[in-house]
Each structure stands twice: as C-alpha cells, then as structure tokens.
Design a protein that fits this description.
The complex is a heterodimer.
Chain A lengths: L3 E2 L2 E4 L3 H13 L3 E4 L14 E2 L4 E2 H14 L3 E4 L2 E8 L4 E7 L14 H5 L3 E3 L8 E3 L1 E2 L11 E2 L9 H5 L12 E7 L1 E4 L3 E3 L16 E3 H8 L19 E8 L15 H15 L4 E6 L9 H11 L2 E4 L2 E6 L5 E7 L5 E7 L1 E6 L1 E3 L7 E2 L28 E3 L9 H23 L6
Parallel strand pairs in A: 1-13, 2-3, 2-14, 3-6, 7-25, 14-26, 16-23, 17-18, 17-23, 18-19
Antiparallel strand pairs in A: 4-5, 7-8, 8-13, 9-10, 11-12, 15-24, 20-21, 21-22
Chain B lengths: L6 E6 L11 H11 L3 E7 L5 H13 L4 E6 L2 H14 L7 E5 L1 H5 L6 H21 L6 E4 L3 E5 L3 H12 L3 E5 L14 E2 L4 E2 H12 L5 E4 L3 E8 L2 E7 L4 E6 L1 E4 L3 E3 L15 E3 H10 L8 E3 L2 E3 L1 E8 L20 H15 L4 E6 L9 H10 L1 E5 L7 E5 L2 E7 L7 E6 L1 E6 L1 E3 L3 H7 L26 E3 L9 H19 L3 E4 L4 E3 L9 H5 L5 E6 L2 E6 L9 H5 L5 E3 L4 H11 L2
Parallel strand pairs in B: 1-2, 1-3, 3-4, 6-7, 6-14, 7-10, 14-27, 16-25, 19-20, 19-25, 20-21
Antiparallel strand pairs in B: 5-28, 8-9, 11-12, 12-13, 15-26, 17-18, 22-23, 23-24, 29-32, 30-31
Classes of the chains: A alpha/beta, B alpha/beta.
C-alpha cells in the first residue's frame, strides 16, 4: 500500500483522543485517529451517567463519536495497532496494523443475525465479564462503528454466521492491512487500565461473586446494562445494602500505587446516587479515607449525596467474608464515630478500583525516547510550560496518558494537546494548511 | 396539492428494532394508498447502511425526487448522515426530513404494537406534510477575522497568547492592572515544580516577547462589544484613549481573588500570629534556610504552627438561603502541604499541626501529603460543625479543637503561628460581565456551556473562558485550560469562513409593526430595529441568532418566524399528525 500523509497521528479514540482530533481537524489539519478496539469512545462510552452533571455518557459522547466518524479532516482506523514509530523526514513514520474483523464493516448493518447463529459463548470484555457474547459479536449497542467483529480465537469455523448474514458481510479471507503513514506530530491519548482487584487479596474479588469492581457496577447501572435491572451476580437478588470500598488499588503502597486516582470518590458517589434512583430502599455505605471532591461542582455533589442519605464511614476495610446466603461481612476500622474495629453486613460490595498506566505504546517508538515516570505514566517534560509535553519533541500527551484524570480535565487537556501540537506543526511547516 | 412534488419515503426496520413492534409494511402500504405525491415508498432493513444510502441516491437522481422523508431512529443519531446523503445526490439537504419511529414509536410502545404502528404512521404523515411546505435552505456563511482578544494578563492569558501567536493568529492581550503575571507573580515556590511563581511568569513573558503578532496593553479594560463569532468589535479603554479592536474571538482569563477572612474569623486580625497562606508564602519566599535556621515571625520564634484548612471554602449553605462559598477551592490542600514541606526543609524542629476536613491531595500530590507526615507534620481532622477555635493566651495562640480520636472532648493546644489556608473567590468583574454579557454560575465563577463537551465555551459563541475565572485550579491545570481555549479560538479563526446552521429567525416585513417585544426577549442581542422605506421594523442578524425561537413566541403579529420551522411548516405537520 502507498504511504499516507497526515499532519498528526492521534493514538487512542477515547474522549481525549476524539477531542484532540476534532480540535485539530477543525483547525484544518489532516488527522489520522487510531483505535485498537473494534469501537471508539473508550471507557467513557461504557459508563452510565457521568459526574457531576449526571448526563448520560453515551448520549454526550455521541456527538463526539459521530463527529470523528464523519469529519472531512479525520481518517479513523479502528481495531488497529500502532506497531512501530520511527523518525522520518517529515517528522515520524508510523506503521499501523489494521486487524481483520472478518466482517466487511461497509456491508454490515449490525442486524445481529450472526450473533444469533453463532454457537460459541465467551465472556464479554465490554461488560467486564458480567455477561457473555458470541464469537462473532457487536461490541455493545452504542458501538461506533456499529459493525460485527469476529473473534477468530474462539471461532470453531462452523460457518453459521456466513450462511446467515443477509448482507453477505462475513469474509473469512480478510488479512491484516498494513498502513504506513507519515506525520508531523503525534498525540498519545492512550487512556488507562483498571487496577486488577484480585491483587488486593483481602477483598476476595474473583472469589466471592458479590464482590464486584466499580466498572462492573457501572455496567449494572447503565442503560445498556447486562441484567436489565440492578441485581447482584450471585443469585439475581436486588441488593438492599451496598458497600463501596474506596481507594482499592490507590493510595496503597502494598499494591505499588501510592498515588490517588482522582476519580474514584466522585464516581462512587455518582453510582450511589444512581442506585438510589433505581432502588430507593437500598442503603449505601462508602468506606473512605478522604472524600476528594475537588473539581467544579464536586463538593456540591458530595453534599447532595449526604443529603440523599448515602452513608460515609471513614475507615479502611481490612477483610471481607462471605456468608452462606452469599451476603458479605466487612471488617473495618472506624476512625470516627465510636472508633475501633467494627464489622458490617452488605449484600453487594463494590471495589472502587483505581486507574493505572496503559503506556505499552512507548515500546512502539523506535529510536525515540518517550520517558515514563516512576509509576509508569508518560512523563511530562516541563509542567511549568505545559502538561502535555512528553520527553520526545513532537510527541504530545492528552487525557489519562500522563496520569488519572476526570472527564472535564481530560477534555481540557486534549484541547491543550491540540493547541501545542498545532503550534508545533505550524512552526515546523510554516503556515497552517487551510488558507 | 399539485403533482410537481416528488417525494421519496424510506421506512427503516432497524434490523427489528423498529419492525419488531411497528408493522413497517402496513406503514408503507398506507402511505402508498393515501399519498399520490409519494413517488417512492420503500421499507429498508437499515436506512443508514451504505448500501441503502446508495439506493436512495439512485432513486433521487433517477426518479427526480425533490423531497425525502426518512423514518428511522432519532434524528440525533443520523440526521446528519441523511442530509449528507441528500447533498451527495444533489438535493438541498434541508428538503429531507428525518422522523423518529424508533425511540418515539417502537421502543416507547413495546407492549402495544397496534399503537406503535399508528404512531409511526402519524409521524411519517407529519414528515410528508413538512417536506411539502419546506423551502430549500442554505447554511449561513460568516467571514472571520484572524485575531483574538485575550482579557487578563495572568498566567492563563499569557499562555493563551503564546499558543495563539504560535498558531499564526494575531493576539491583543489586555490587562487591567499595570503589570503582567497576576497572583502567580507574587507567589513563592509552587507545587509541584518547586519553581518560584515569578519565575514561571518570567518564562511565559519571555516566550511571548519579540513576537510580531502580539500586542499587549496594560491598564486597559473592556468598555463594550458588538458583533458575533468571527467578527467582534470591542471597545477598550486605555489610560487616556479609547480604541476599537476587530477580533474573531475573545478569551476571558480574568483569574481569581484570594479569599480574605473576615475580622475575627479564626482570630484573623484580632489574634497576633494569625496569618493567611499567602502571607506565609511571602515569608517563606524571602526566608533563606538550609534546615538548621530558626523561623522568626513578628518578633516571635516559631516552634509550632497550626494550619487551618478550608477557610472560605466548603462553607455550609446557610439555612436562610444566603450566600456561602460551598465549592472546594481545589488547590489549597496541595499548596498547604507543599508550604509545610518548605517549612520543614528550611527550618529546624518546627511542628506543624494541620487541622483539615478531607485531605484533597489528589493524584501525585498524595506523595507530598505522605512526605509531610514524615517530616514533622501532624494531621488532625475536624468536622464542619466543630471547627477549631483560636484565641490569644499569653504570648501564644491557643487552639481548641475536637477530634473523634480523642472522643470528641475539647483539647487545648498552644502554637506560635496560625496559618489560615484560604481559598479562591471569583474576581470582581461586574463591569466586564455587563460589557460582554458573561454568564456566571451559582458559585460566582464563569459558567461554561457544558463542563465535558464544551468546557471553554460560553453561551455567546466565540467568547471563551479559561483558567481560574472559570473554577479554582492550580498552575498546571490553568495552563492546560488556557491552551484548550486557544485551540478552540484557533479552530474558529483559522477558517476564513464559518458555516452556521440556517435555522434562524426572519421577519415578514409586511406583518411587522415594530412592537419590539422580540428585541426585549432575544437573549443573544441578535435583533435590532431598522427603518426601511420609511417603515420601522425588526431585523435579525443571522450570524448572532441561535434559532431559539423566543422572538417567535412573543411576536404579537406573527411577523417573526423561524427558518426551517415556519408557522406554515409546523401547522402542516400538526395537520399530518392529527389526520
């Protein structure tokens, strides 16, 4: 394939990557936006509602996902990995591998007939294992592009999907496509990974079914929820007494992350408010160290949560035990109130897991040093100048690439990355593209 | 109706999403029967699929369709898709109407198939009625001026100016005081960089100086503005003269004020040795110290210091509904722990007692909190209903506090210095706010259109906000938001021409009697009174109009109407629905 030319390469099409790409595209720059998942939108698209305004995440992401899909200056590649980046005359040359979907996305109408026909069921990663999907599947209802994708690792080649598809979109002969692109600058918007709650052994995640992580809870309360009701995994009972363990995997040296993840206090309170909407009789208790409601409108949200009856217990949970009826007992130190070691029963326990670096992309840089900080986030070169500068000239960072951030801060920083990137390209190439 | 109209109607199954509950075939048959102008009536598995779009384009061209109705999902999802399709087919995109029969019919009435079908049919009839009376519309084009006015010469304004200038945009920066740098210029070491505030300002000013496309005016304020995105005209008062600037966009970066405690608040101005964090920062920035020095303040040797947090922030809303700073000032926990570390680093044997409510050292700042705890800081939490008391006793400050760790019994403690960790308050800009009609939130800071989708935009398109004028922030976050505002401004003005939606108000000159109700009602100042051939009448500036329709509702004569939603179009739709 011939080499393609763009002004900027944006890696990651979550909310930060989309915002940066739109800003650059609106300025008249040609942008290649690459997403490794079969759908864009990142973690935000999987959320229920978002704090502190409580708007529906997929509805407000909708304008961004549709803009990047139709923007005249943005070329979007999904299900694609940036394999190698090296210096070139114009700036950088990147090799991008577009993985085969085994479905022609331009023909697929996402009718779902292939899903019905497929006999293989595996856990759905987009629901964090709460429900299954087929080997051929549409990632979720609001996925963009909304096209099926075939997971060949789990496929048994029964060809049921191919026979069923009314659009003749299934194509087992697809092979990976290699794109070589030349760009002047790069924006990394690679987001974050969730803390693996199994590592906090005392909380028994992965062992007790009613101990879930906050992303699973997010799915349970979202409009496209797996159970179509707020119920607990072990027996489908409506939970009436839910506990939240904040700082799971954050502010915790024993798991190697001494930093605060910035978003967990707020999303936990948000989930609490949403649950109270679905299950008005439920009691909700947050076990916390400090409530970090520091952003615009956050403190007001915290006060509102207290006024709505969310219980806040200042203390760290030490261990969790399961009862015969799959209810849970938590042991914690009550640092306020009457103090001392206490225990409490809950029928569902949510671990508010922290955010960890997702910076494998640095390995793709060949002969270019993109440094990481001591926890593994992309290191900021000079914060007194701008927090989107990485150690490599011409490589910028947006959103959670440099550390945990909430959506408002990610979007602001994406704008900042676009601004620094645009200035860099103009300085290098002279005047802007669109005259 | 005449036979000149050639309408195409496409009813979507949405792969069962619609057709499971709506009898799509029945809708098609009914429309075929009753609507002679509908040249083509079809049902498609997915209207939005590329193949279906190609089929529609083919139909429009071959059958010479001049109007199209698409009955599918919500227009929010795919209206743009179908309008673009129409454009590709050579049809004016506004001659296509998208009706919703999924969210509003099939999904809303899953338990009533007959009802869902009848509702879908009614929607399609309304859509047909609409396109019959529709007129082709063109997007409004507006020229832009490639320059931006930045109001405020603190770090946010400076950063936005640097970025825009680097993006080849002309910048005029005005500052109401006599010097640049705002509050930051006066601060000592700032977390997390450990560089002095004055140094950060100097670097920004150095980066800006010598640029040909930046003009800086100090002692300058905004008097008034007119115009709209791409073409604002701003009158600016300089020392003795008034100048007029032509700019494409405006960035407001007016910063914050520090909260000043009232006399007697935690002993402020009453008890000797009670100061604010800004005063402590000044003391520390001039004090040399290598870890063995002694700290002398006001002639008193300081061994113990009390920090009291959340002064002027996180205030409880008063029961009478009066004003309180309910918000968290965000930077203070971090700044206070950073100042504590500076004290521990410079001076020997000083204990600091931190009276806090929640330590909000978010992110990496957590490491400062932890480090302070190991360097001689002791953290004591207090409840909002039981704040510590400060009194003078002997030559020291007496702190009385209640802590749950000591069974909520009052405890007295003596310190040499009390530092009030004061928050940020909105800066006083009443005149500017009036001049630019800037929206202010309940917290007193400028209000963005949407904190996530459009965080730097205000409800006046083209007027942007950033930095601490919008919300409390630290230096790093302020710089980011300034850059984000610069990016947005650049995206406006780097285009020579802007395209705006055509759904704006217009006046029927024959009906307008110059009642001027519309002028009073318009929130965007888009309507003015003009005189044409001796008759006074309202006139709409299409570039300023947002199409909200407020003027249409109040017009007593029906002269004011909205393009794309004229009275005739709406009436015919109601006719279609009620058929």
């Amino acid at each position: 394939m011939p080499e393609e030319e763009y002004d900027a390469l944006v890696i990651g099409a979550g909310v930060a990557g989309m915002e940066a790409a739109i800003d650059l595209g609106d300025m008249g720059f040609k942008v290649m936006l690459v997403e490794k998942e079969p759908t864009i939108g990142g973690k935000m698209l999987l959320l229920s509602k978002v704090f502190p305004t409580l708007d529906c995440a997929s509805c407000i992401s909708g304008t961004k996902t549709s803009t990047v899909s139709h923007h005249q200056n943005i070329r979007l590649l999904t299900y694609s990995n940036v394999d190698e980046i090296e210096k070139s005359k114009s700036g950088f040359r990147a090799r991008i591998i577009e993985k085969p979907r085994y479905v022609d996305a331009s023909l697929c109408t996402s009718c779902g007939d292939c899903e019905d026909a497929c006999p293989i069921i595996v856990p759905n990663e987009f629901d964090f294992g709460l429900r299954g999907r087929k080997a051929i599947y549409i990632p979720f209802d609001t996925a963009v592009p909304k096209s099926a994708v075939l997971d060949l690792d789990n496929c048994i080649y029964c060809m049921q999907c191919e026979r069923t598809c009314p659009a003749d979109a299934i194509d087992f002969l697809q092979v990976p496509k290699v794109h070589t692109v030349n760009v002047k600058a790069i924006i990394l918007a690679v987001g974050f990974k969730l803390f693996q709650a199994e590592k906090k052994k005392d909380y028994r995640y992965g062992e007790y079914r009613n101990v879930v992580n906050s992303m699973q809870m997010e799915r349970i309360v979202s409009p496209t929820r797996p159970y179509n009701a707020v119920v607990r995994p072990s027996d489908g009972k409506e939970p009436q007494n839910i506990g939240y363990v904040l700082c799971t995997g954050s502010r915790d040296k024993t798991v190697g992350n001494p930093r605060c993840s910035q978003v967990c206090c707020m999303y936990s309170m948000k989930q609490a408010q949403l649950i109270m909407g679905s299950l008005p009789a439920a009691d909700i208790t947050l076990y916390y160290m400090d409530i970090r409601a520091y952003g615009k409108g956050f403190e007001e949200f915290y006060r509102q949560s207290r006024d709505m009856g969310v219980k806040f217990v200042r203390g760290k949970v030490a261990k969790v035990e399961q009862k015969v009826n799959t209810d849970l007992t938590v042991y914690y130190e009550d640092t306020e109130g009457s103090g001392g070691m206490k225990k409490a029963d809950h029928d569902l326990l949510v671990l508010s897991v922290g955010l960890l670096p997702n910076t494998d992309i640095v390995k793709a840089f060949n002969g270019i040093k993109v440094e990481l900080d001591e926890v593994g986030w992309i290191k900021v070169r000079d914060e007194g100048k701008s927090s989107v500068l990485t150690s490599a000239d011409g490589v910028f960072a947006a959103g959670c690439t440099t550390g945990p951030k909430d959506i408002p801060d990610s979007v602001l920083e994406a704008g900042a990355a676009a601004s620094q990137c645009a200035a860099y390209i103009i300085k290098k190439m002279g005047s802007p593209i669109e005259q | 109706m005449s036979n000149e109209k050639r309408i195409g109607v496409y009813v979507c199954h949405c792969g069962g999403n619609i057709s499971d509950y709506v009898d799509v075939n029945k809708v098609v048959e009914e429309i075929k029967k009753e609507e002679p102008d509908a040249v083509i009536v079809k049902d498609l598995m997915f209207d939005c699929a590329d193949a279906s779009q190609s089929e529609m384009i083919d139909d429009i061209k071959k059958q010479k369709l001049d109007r199209v109705v698409v009955a599918a999902c919500s227009p929010k999802l795919h209206e743009t898709t179908f309008r673009n399709m129409a454009k590709r087919a050579g049809l004016n995109p506004f001659m296509l109407y998208h009706v919703d029969i999924r969210e509003q019919a099939s999904w809303a009435h899953e338990n009533n198939r007959m009802g869902a079908t009848l509702k879908a049919l009614a929607h399609v009839r309304a859509g047909i009625a609409y396109v019959k009376s529709a007129e082709p519309l063109e997007k409004i084009k507006a020229e832009t001026t490639r320059s931006v006015l930045i109001i405020g010469g603190g770090i946010a304004g400076l950063k936005a100016a640097i970025d825009l200038s680097a993006m080849d945009v002309n910048v005029v920066l005005i500052e109401r005081s006599s010097k640049l740098g705002g509050h930051v210029a006066e601060l000592g070491e700032i977390y997390p960089y450990y560089t002095a505030g004055s140094e950060i300002v100097k670097n920004l000013v150095d980066e800006l100086s010598g640029r040909g496309n930046v003009a800086i005016f100090t002692n300058a304020t905004v008097v008034s503005y007119s115009g709209y995105l791409g073409k604002f005209e701003v009158k600016v008062q300089r020392e003795t003269s008034e100048i007029t600037l032509q700019v494409g966009s405006i960035i407001v970066a007016t910063g914050f004020d520090t909260y000043k405690p009232y006399t007697g608040e935690y002993g402020y101005e009453k008890v000797r040795g009670v100061i604010t964090i800004s005063e402590l920062a000044r003391v520390l920035s001039t004090a040399a110290g290598d870890g063995s020095a002694e700290l002398i303040y006001d002639g008193r040797k300081v061994r113990q210091i009390a920090f009291i947090y959340c002064v002027g922030s996180r205030q409880k809303p008063p029961e009478d509904g009066g004003h309180a700073n309910q918000y968290c000032s965000r930077y203070c926990c971090n700044a206070a722990t950073s100042e504590a570390l500076t004290v521990h680093r410079k001076f020997k044997d000083i204990k600091i007692y931190h009276f806090y409510r929640d330590m909000r050292t978010y992110g990496r700042n957590e490491l400062m909190y932890e480090s302070a705890g190991r360097s001689g800081s002791i953290f004591i939490r207090f409840d909002e209903d039981h704040p510590p008391l400060v009194a003078e006793e002997g030559n020291r400050c007496k702190i009385t506090f209640w802590s749950s760790l000591i069974e909520n019994q009052p405890v007295d403690m003596y310190v040499d210095l009390v530092v009030l960790i004061t928050g940020m308050v909105p800066s006083h800009n009443e005149e500017l706010n009036r001049a630019l009609s800037l929206p202010v939130g309940v917290d007193g800071f400028y209000k963005e259109v949407h904190p996530k989708l459009r965080p730097v935009e205000t409800n006046v398109t083209g007027i942007l906000i950033c930095g601490t004028s919008q919300a409390p922030r630290d230096v790093r976050e302020t710089l980011s938001s300034a850059s984000a505002a610069a990016a947005k401004a650049a995206s406006f003005v780097l285009k020579r021409e802007l395209e705006l939606d055509p759904f704006v108000a217009f006046v029927d000159p024959g009906l307008c009697e110059a009642h001027q109700e519309c002028i009073k009602e318009c929130p965007y100042g888009a309507i003015e009174l003009i005189e044409e051939s001796g008759k006074k009448m309202a006139h709409v500036n299409s570039a300023k109009c947002k199409g909200c329709g407020a003027c249409v509702a109040v017009c007593p004569t029906g002269a004011m109407q909205l393009k794309g939603y004229t009275n005739a179009e709406i009436k015919s739709m109601i006719g279609g629905l009620a058929r």
